[in-house]
Amino acid sequence: MNTISEEESTEILPCTARSSPSGSSPPPKRCLKEDDVFMERAFKQARLALSEGEVPVGCVFVQGDQHVICEGRNATNNKLTGEAHAEIKCIDQILAQNAKTDWSRVSLYVTVEPCIMCAAALKMLGVGKIVFGCHNPRFGGMGTVLDAMSVACSCPSPYIRSDVRSEEAIDLLKVFYAGINPSAPEDKVKKKKRAEH
Ligand SMILES: [Zn+2]
Question: Of residues 6, 87, 167, 186, which has the active-site annotation?
């Protein structure tokens, strides 16, 4: 499914206008409804990551507020590289498909606040809108540890919405860090975390 319902897709949302990076004015209601749809897809990816023994972070990139162009999940353990964050993997795929992607029309939905590395990449690309779940107290690059969005450069700042289903995102992380792999047999439950997002 690449689009939301026909009724909802008749018009591009004005939320791409990004009224203010600080989010002082709420996004239009339709935008909130679409946010829910895409965040659910991001959570599906996060749950898949958890089942694969990865830090449960999932994301979805949407073009024009309705067309999913990429979705992915964290893979740092399986790929043995700290760069295999969900967002970076998707960015690479999107650029491979279309190097001239208009990032100002792209929205990112991700279950956890992007880390400093990912936030800087998103800022440099000029991604138009970022919706995330819980804050990332160790590596958050959207203001929690560092605000990559405030870096002075010519790149436009995105519209940002945070704390979307944040408790659910935290619960998934807690399951991972407690070493509880829901897809593993009980006697093979991991005792230790293997890596961190
Ligand atoms: Zn990251």
Answer: 87
